[in-house]
Amino acid sequence: MFCAQTDIAPRPDAPPDQAPPSDALAEPATRETIHALRDAVRAVIEVRLGDPAEAAQAGAMAVPACVLWNQFLRFDPASPDWPDRDRFIVSSTRHRPLLDALMRLAGQTVAPDGVVGYGVHPAVEMAFGPSGQGLGAAIGMALAERQLAARFGRSIVNHRIWALSCGTELATGVAMEAASLAARMRLDRVTVLFEIASHEEDEAEDTLARYAATGWMVRKVAADDHDAVQAALSAAVRSRKPSVLACSITPRSAPPRPVASATGPMPDHSTLLWARAARRGASARRSWLRRLVKHRLRAEFERIAARRLPSFWREDWLRAWHTASLSAILPDPDTIQADTTLGYGRQGLDILRDLVPEMLCLSSRRGRERTEAMPADQALPDCGTLVHGLAALLNGIAVHGGMVPCGAITFVAIDRMRPALRFAAMMRQQVIYLLTDDGLALSEDGAGWLPVEQLASLRAMPNVLVFRPADRRETMECWELALRRADGPSLITLSPMATDANAPPDLRQRRPRDGSARGGYVMEEARGPRQVTLIATGSEMVIARQAQHLLVRDGISAALVSLPCWELFARQDAAYRAQVLGDAPRIGIEAASGFGWDRWLGPDGAFIGMEDFCEAAPSGELYRRLGITAERIHETAIRLVNETGRDFQSPSGQKADGHRARSVAGGTT
């Protein structure tokens, strides 16, 4: 049997209102109170579920939950969104009835029959999601708490994170990765409670051994033993490691007494049974408010608590962006070229870290190599290849509040982060992902690193904005859009491929100011009536512009359209989209799958990209093998113009194919 580790010491940084309780045996009156709370919780669950067997299973963790809520959890029912409250995470759906009962009895719901769910009530910290995501989010909250405490001090940031989970969830890969990161970062303010059924003993022992080997404090107690539960929770409060408390469940039969009808009135036990917890929480919040009033950073703390960006940040952002020297901030000019969206993305991250101090960036090992995501004096250990856990932590940082989470990873690694990304989109949380090595830049490492279907799959996910900037200006605009967006995750894909240094010098002045904000715009209009429209994203804009020059040489009026964000472009009115795309034949250019491009190209359009994996080769060679070249675009444009009957002049003044082409109206020219 696992027991508490020996690295337990009193916390000198805890204010008087959060002094840890003693781990001595509880007084009889306290034990009687816990038993009354347990009975009340189970009665509510029985009324709600109706089935005695389901109610017995749902109420199995009633004693640990009541000990936690009555003696340890710091919350004020009158202010469920108090910034310095303890966070209580229920990550498994099997504990939904228990959470509902606890909130009802503690007076955290106004209507007894109201729905308790994420986004409906502020005391519900997060939604139920894929297995393992809840534990990862709890660890992310502990990281956010520590970062905020380092900035504002323990006088106003001093809370803990408690998670109620299950053994099957703790054994998942994402939970193990997140647990490894918690131990590596020594996030000692997170405690996880989970139940062990009699048939899960062997699997639970294996899980506990893994957590103990990772660096967690592990204890195992009987779920109905109030004294053992209290002692274990007290040890977790004093421990300098993250803690996990395993509670063995003893099967119990349904109580013989009848329960009230599910449609009848529900008894209110909150005043009598939860008075102690409510008084403790209200007193703690009043003390905290007095300290906040006197705190020198009160205005700044209230700003981040309200999720507002700093005043005049945009003016400073534009000034710093246009005056910063890119070569001076690149960690390795030989690795990251200056004139790339990857280089510009790193520039934006460095600037925003100074202007928006609440930005917290986690990175994989490859992402850190590409972006140097944190300066040396604030460095967090990189997450290595634990991108499952990294993504789960980002969600917890976002849900906790007070921080803007950012993750720097390679593009292909997004496949391992997809469950967490989907969870963030579902909860509408602001998480920024920097996806490095967009396109074919990693092709020399093999086809496994070649992103083919990732862009299409990410664009298909609801409430996600996928930005693929083409140059310096678009990178700046996409950074700003991602930072302003507060109702969902944003992904900025960055490429180490050089942008077009031969673009017309006055092109920036001719672009619309809100082009990226509208998702798409005409980067360079045709010289005359449009005969073909070239639509590109990202680094393929260089190839599209080269093809445009070839077409202009042959007398074809070609427009160049950039679509840095499909989702924003789709939100524009039909008239604007028609104005940008035009009615001429369209050609889409992107080093990715063409799935979804038909919505922009129409029935007469063509797509030039890749639909299959390719063998390892230098990126320039791969573009040639896949046919993503200016010459192929040029040939495709000529074919489309001839097929649609668009007339154009060759440099010699003759018709392109020496014959009269059919006009759109059906006549001849």
Automatic annotation (TrEMBL):
Co-factor requirement: thiamine diphosphate; Mg(2+)
Record SMART domains: Transket_pyr (SM00861)
Pfam families: Transket_pyr, Transketolase_C_1, Transketolase_N
Compositional bias ranges of the Basic and acidic residues kind: 507-516
Swiss-Prot/TrEMBL GO biological process terms: pentose-phosphate shunt
Record bears the keyword Translocase: no
Keywords tagged on the record: Magnesium, Metal-binding, Thiamine pyrophosphate, Transferase
Domain named Transketolase-like pyrimidine-binding: residues: 339-501
Molecular function GO labels: metal ion binding; transketolase activity
Region Disordered: start-end pairs: 1-24, 494-520, 644-669
Reaction catalyzed: D-sedoheptulose 7-phosphate + D-glyceraldehyde 3-phosphate = aldehydo-D-ribose 5-phosphate + D-xylulose 5-phosphate
One GO CC annotation: cytosol
Keyword Iron-sulfur among record annotations: no
PANTHER family documented for this protein: TRANSKETOLASE, TRANSKETOLASE 1-RELATED
Family affiliation: Belongs to the transketolase family.
Protein name (Swiss-Prot/TrEMBL): Transketolase
